[in-house]
Amino acid sequence: MATNFTTADLIDDHGDTLRSCSTQFLRFGGRDRFFGPIRTVACHEDNGLVKQVLNTPGEGAVLVVDGGGSLRSALMGDMIAESAVRNGWAGVVIHGAVRDTVALGGLDLGVKALGSNPRKSAKDAAGRLDAPVTFGDVTFVPGEWLYSDEDGIVVNAERV
Q1: I want to staple 119 with a disulfide (CB 3.0 to 4.6 A). Which of 48, 53, 70, 73 is the partner?
Q2: Which of 40, 95, 43 is nearest to 69 (CA)?
């Protein structure tokens, strides 16, 4: 994966065509920079859909998970993240919590989340798949492109 971009340069080059996420995420994965087409999951304290999706071929995509900002339980841990790596996902952005943070840091996967919590989530697969989700002043639309680096996350309708 070519990671010679910076989100600041993308903003400078493309201006207002890019949407910049105002939510301040922490980095947990082994990749500092990642990008790809967006897939989405909306769920609340239930990672069943996250696990299902990351167990399918990612083909360089980024999964954006809207967990409603809940930090009460983790929506992804090391085992689900390992399956994402095996299946070719570029990264995961979670508007919620993760767990197994030391292990996540050793994986070749971009992972951003609000924080961590060792508590497991429910496994009922309740939620929505591949519907637009909104947080941080950005609507993440499946099929659009997400770029993430040390400075933040930007989204564009097409690849830049």
Answers
A1: 73
A2: 95
